Amino acid sequence: MSLVIEEAIDWIHSRLLFGSRPGLDRVETLLKKVDNPEEKVPTIHIAGTNGKGSTVTYLRCMLEELGLKVGTFTSPYIEHFNERIAINGHGISDDHIIRYVEKYQELIKEMDQESESAGITEFETLTVMALDYFLEEQVDIAIIEVGLGGLLDSTNVVKPMLTAITTIGKDHTEILGDTLEEIAFQKAGIIKEGIPVVTGNIEEDAFVVINEVAGKKHSRVYRYEKDYKTEYRHPDKNWGEIFDFYGEAGKLPKVKVSLLGRHQVENAAVAIQLFYLYCETLQINYTDRDIYQGLAKAKWPARMEKISDEPLIILDGAHNDHAVRRLAENLKKEFPDREIHILFSALASKNIDQMIALLRKVPNVHLYLTTFDYPRAIELNKMEHFEDEKTEIVSLWQFGLGEILEKMSADDLMLVTGSLYFVSQVRELLLNLGSGDEG
Q1: Are 315 and 426 in contact (CB under 8 A)?
Q2: Residue 438 pLDDT
Q3: What pLDDT is attached to residue 102?
Q4: Fewest C-beta atoms under 10 Å: which of 123, 378, 401, 433?
Q5: Which three-class secondary structure string do you get for 303-345?
Q6: What pLDDT, in 10s, does the model give residues 53-92?
Q7: Would the pLDDT of 176 be above 90?
Q8: Does the predicted model carry a pTM greater than 0.85?
Q9: Who's near 215: CB < 8 A, 6+ residues apart?
Q10: In which order are the strands placed within the sheet that holds 90-91?
Q11: So what's the pLDDT on residue 217?
Q12: What is the spatial distance between Cα 338 and Cα 358, in angstroms, rounded to a whole number?
């Protein structure tokens, strides 16, 4: 008897029991059982501490302007589970998920009985499902976002034609290492022999490591601010950023992205450089208009996303201290004169004290610290030492949301930030309340 979609997704989630387990043995075993789709799907592989998701989206939208069929594998999801595996922005269908789950259940049951391949994780299972789907649907190109690190991430089974590393920051230090150099080495694990790698705005110490790995792999490095660069102009009057791009093909003036934040300029630049290299490699004709239109159309939920104008409500999944540092910079530059009310929660594994300390330094800020319904969410008592006149502890985030909305004046700003899992829960409620549109 065929499964229903809820049962199929529950089965996928049941693999969460095995956590995150770096290594390629299990994923390679399952791939072999489904005839190795990773060897037949053309891919672009993107790693980085932050900026991966928006870079994937920018690149997808530009490639779509060429009329291509573009697969994307991203995580986590914001609105629907199916969006993690998508083609041209449309999530995989329920019917496909059910069919793949029914196909994999028996295969994984066999694997669980072998000690070497037992315990394949949810993310590993989804990696195989994505590659299987992209092969079946005959995508022109699949853009694959690394889950964690790079070297031992399950996505590192792909045979990419291009790779990129967007940023390097301290996150998942218990797995990737305590220093930027150690983390950079893990991210650089996606670099393949002779395959070009595009690097974003990366600190020198981390870049040296990436460059060394690329040298050993005979891979050409395209470095931000050296081989391609941007010149920031100003925020767009509606929403987003305007900048000039400079690369081997010359200057692109007044490029617009519809996501807010200076770091989005850097993410878009990585995507433009990848777009150029892709077209050059396959000798595809493109116009500047493909770039302008693709970037202008790109949307990425919960990344400096404005969901209401009156009152002004922004959602941003700044889920580690590297992302929070960039967020704090954006708030200071973009909203210097507004009172800012921040509702924050994160996973217990993150550097919570550092993240909160960075948010507290933003001028005119009032912080509401809370928890949410998720297995690894931070406990309230771990944040109590921050409580003072500008920082409150809120037992239920729904109460905090209501309190902020009640207190806000017309000129104030509400920001919901922290874990993407948290932000997506708040986002769903706000949109259901009809408190604003998604523009």
Answers
A1: yes
A2: 41
A3: 97
A4: 433
A5: CCEEEECCCEEEEECCCCHHHHHHHHHHHHHHCCCCCEEEEEE
A6: 999 999 999 999 999 999 999 998 888 999 999 999 999 9
A7: no
A8: yes
A9: none
A10: 90-91, 85-87, 70-73, 141-145, 43-47, 162-165, 197-199, 221-223
A11: 98
A12: 18
Say which amino acid occupies 133.
Y
What percent of the chain clears pLDDT 70, i.e. is strictly above it?
Answer: 96
- Rounded Cα gap, residues 182 and 173, in angstroms: 9
Dihedral sign for Cα atoms in the order 248, 250, 251, 252: negative
Cβ contact 9:77 at 8 Å: no
Encoded tokens for 72: 């994307």
Complete domains list, the chain, with CATH: 5-297 (3.40.1190.10), 305-433 (3.90.190.20)
146, 190 Cβ separation under 8 angstroms: yes
- CA 404/CA 406 separation, integer angstroms: 5
Q: What are phi and psi of 431, to 5 degrees?
A: -70, -35
